Amino acid sequence: MPEGAYTDRWQQILVVDSDPSSVAATETALNAGGYPHVTITTDPNEGAELLRRGTFDLLLTERSFSGYEELDLLQIAHSCDKRLPVVVMTADNDVATAIEALRLRAADFLVKPVDPGVLVERLDKVLRDRSSRRGREVVLAVGAHPDDVEVGAGAALLAHRARGDRVAILIMSVGERGGMALVRKREAAVAADLLGAELLLGNLEDTRVPDHGPSVELIEDSIAWSGATRVYTHSASDHHQDHRNTHRATMIAARRLPRVYGFQSPSSTIDYRPTRFESIDDKLAQKLELIACHRSQSASRDYLDEDFIVATARYWGRFGASRYAEAFEVLRDVQGHILPATEHRDLAVAMHSEPEPLRLAEAEPVSAEEFTEAI
């Protein structure tokens, strides 16, 4: 890897290239260069559909495709997210082509074949420039069980990803009392992969998640490991003891973070009183897709019914300037300077002797085919 390379395991890169051999070489180069989350397609129509999901940090694409004269992925990308960096690559070493691409706000222009080291170096620079301009946040969502985070803050996390923020999800317990542990792990991995988030699985016992000790350490380690600058977690106003205890542990572990918000769960009590309402009109459909990943639960839990999720969002929308909204209690929102992720990580690591979340179980993202086989 080039010295000083910009490495970030959260970066989601979409590659659209009609040449199968070129696409394979590109994927290999990016994986070797520190980018494991690469989505590849040789079909520009599929590429356009993936862009409309709005969960990528960079698009690497050809300028034009034979047989798709009316399809311009550069313009489609900017219509979906005007801040999404697009790197154009072409086999046509023509100055006019390069000028046209840059005129349409391409972040860079590459001529194939591209040396693997040069490719990674150029993408590093584009992503580094984007990060410095955007002042990205690192968001950690803490849920007691699989599906808690998606139900309470799924759309907010999707919005963070669309803005280029990094997102990590910590699940305190895999919820073995509510279903098969292996299945629930796989469901959580599929949902996190769809969201474009890192997944951290704790190994605490379902229904016995404590509000101290192991829980606090698990969350502290996850904050240190991720460099989180914002946290979403359960509200204290909740019937479920795991939810309340996760809230209490998070408030201790995140005591030095400037922004902490409490989300609603189906077991929240009448005392849940949010004061922040985030519009999710353009993210509701994707939130429903995230929740649908937890199919072992949706088959037996009425609160995961689509009409229940939509009705709840519709209700909270009346308090904001949108039709649908997610509601949050503002547990802490300190205005002013926020440490950049790297500085915060250094501070957090200095506070704890073990920056890596050693009590976490393995949870690699899986494909839809692997998930189907698992259940």
- Residue stretches low in confidence (pLDDT < 50, at least 5 long) are 1-8, 336-359, 361-366
Write the element-wise H/E pattern from the N-terminal end onward. Answer: EHEHEHEHEHEHEHEHEHEEHHHEHEH
Structural class, from helix and strand content? alpha/beta
Shape: elongated
Radius of gyration: 21 Å
Q: What top-tier CATH class of the largest domain fits best? A: Alpha Beta
What count of helical segments does DSSP give? 14
Helix content: 40-55%
CATH topology of the largest domain: Rossmann fold
Strand content: 15-25%
- Say how many strands there are: 13
What average pLDDT do the residues reach?
A: 82
Second rung of CATH, namely the architecture of the largest domain: 3-Layer(aba) Sandwich
Let me know the CATH homologous superfamily of the largest domain: LmbE-like
Neighbour order of strands in the largest sheet: 11-12-10-9-6-7-8-13
Calculate the terminal CA-CA distance, rounded to whole Å.
38 Å
Structural domains: how many: 2
Largest sheet: 8 strands, mixed
